[in-house]
Amino acid sequence: MRVTGDSCSVMPGLMRFRITRSRAAAWASCSICGFWLLRLYCQWFVYQPRLWRGKPLETFMHYWFTLVWIFLVAVFGACAAVQLR
Predict the structure, then answer these.
(1) Given CB 3.0 to 4.6 Å as the disulfide criterion, which of 26, 43, 52, 60 pairs with 83?
(2) Domain limits of the chain?
(3) CA distance 21 to 83
(4) Rounded to two decimals, what is the model's pTM?
(5) Mean pLDDT score of the chain, rounded to an integer?
(6) CA proximity to 70, closest of 45, 42, 40, 35
(7) pLDDT at 34
(8) How far apart are CA 69 and CA 79, in angstroms?
(9) Over the chain (85 residues), what is each successive 10-residue block's mean pLDDT?
(10) What gap in Å lies between CA 29 and CA 72, rounded to an integer?
(11) Largest Cα–Cα distance in the chain?
(12) Which residues make Cβ contacts (< 8 Å) with residue 30, sequence separation at least 6?
């Protein structure tokens, strides 16, 4: 079975057995994880709450994307952990 880039968002368990360790892959995994971690930080501490609080759709999207950023940090963090061990 061929594993594509979409598997990181659909079935991250598939990637566990298909990852080839290299310095470039470790750097990429750590960088992408760091980017999404920074994005998660910005979601809560940089953007002003008045932009989304009290507005049902914006509040829902704020929390929804918080879950998305957490998921992406977990997936790429796990990839980085495999690369660095």
Answers:
(1) 26
(2) 50-85
(3) 5
(4) 0.72
(5) 83
(6) 40
(7) 96
(8) 15
(9) 51 60 89 95 91 92 94 93 87
(10) 11
(11) 47
(12) 80, 83, 84
Residues in the chain, overall count: 85
> 64: which 2 tokens?
């929804």
Cα–Cα distance, 33 to 71 (Å, whole number) = 10
Residue with tokens 């960088």: 31
What are φ and ψ of residue 61, in 5° steps? -65, -35
Structure tokens at 40: 């998660």
Between CA 36 and CA 30 the distance in angstroms is 10
The reported pLDDT for the residue numbered 22 is: 85
Note the pLDDT of residue 16. 57
Q: Is the separation of the CB atoms in 9 and 63 below 8 Å?
A: no
Cα separation, 73 vs 36, whole angstroms: 6
